[in-house]
Fold this sequence. Notes:
single chain, alpha+beta, two-stranded antiparallel sheet, 4 helices, 36% helix, GH, CAZy families GH51 protein, ASD1_cat
Amino acid sequence: xxxxxxxxGVTTIRYPGGNFVSSYRWEDGIGPRSERPVRLDxxxxxxxxxxxxxxxxMAWAEAAGIEPMMAVNIGTRGTAEALDLLEYCNH
Length: 91
C-alpha cells in the first residue's frame, strides 16, 4: 500500500477518517497493543480492536512520506482533546 500511496502522489491523509472519528478516542490507540481497550463501535455495529492506532498511523505516514492530518470530534470531547493529541504527536 505504501508504494501505491507514493505512486498516487498523496500528500496528506486524515486519521481517523470518515464517520469513524465520531466515536474514536485516540488515547485508546496508544501504548502496548495488548493493553489497548476493545470497544464496540455503535455507529458501525462493529468492534474496534485499536490494533492500529495513533503511533502506527504516524509511523505509516512518515514511511509513506505524507503529512498526517489528525482528526478529533470537537462535538463530543472539545478542544482539550485536540490539544492533548497535538501535544502527544509532537512529543
